[in-house]
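tokens incoming
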């Protein structure tokens, strides 16, 4: 059942990425031994590890990313039943993203609620 839930979560994340203009598909996963792809293969600028579970050890999830792909920008996309999808990423990379957004004068970067308004206006 947990495996099915994980696969369902991967499909949901793929759908969200596609809805926002990225190409995405579920990655090929092995069960012990072989080289694995990320949970989601995409032109999104991060390697995505998807966790759809009630209890998450975020450190183990990041460790899994780092073992599979140590030299990339890794994020964990996660949720539990009834919650929205969330992400976890390296804090220094998050600060770098904010710095880049400020440098291009992204509107109201200090108020993330505005991001929802901007997204609604673009749809």
């Amino acid at each position: 059942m947990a495996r099915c839930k994980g696969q369902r979560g991967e499909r949901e994340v793929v759908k969200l990425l596609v809805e926002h203009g990225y190409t995405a598909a579920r990655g090929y996963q092995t069960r012990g031994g072989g080289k694995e792809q990320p949970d989601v293969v995409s032109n999104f600028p991060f390697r995505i590890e998807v966790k759809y579970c009630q209890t998450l050890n975020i450190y183990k999830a990041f460790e899994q990313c780092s073992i599979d792909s140590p030299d990339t920008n890794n994020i964990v996309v996660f949720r539990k039943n009834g919650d929205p999808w969330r992400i976890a990423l390296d804090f220094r990379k998050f600060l770098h993203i904010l710095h880049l957004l400020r440098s291009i004068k992204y509107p109201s970067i200090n108020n993330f609620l505005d991001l929802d308004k901007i997204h609604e206006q673009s749809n």
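note: Residues 26 and 40 are 5 Å apart (CA to CA).
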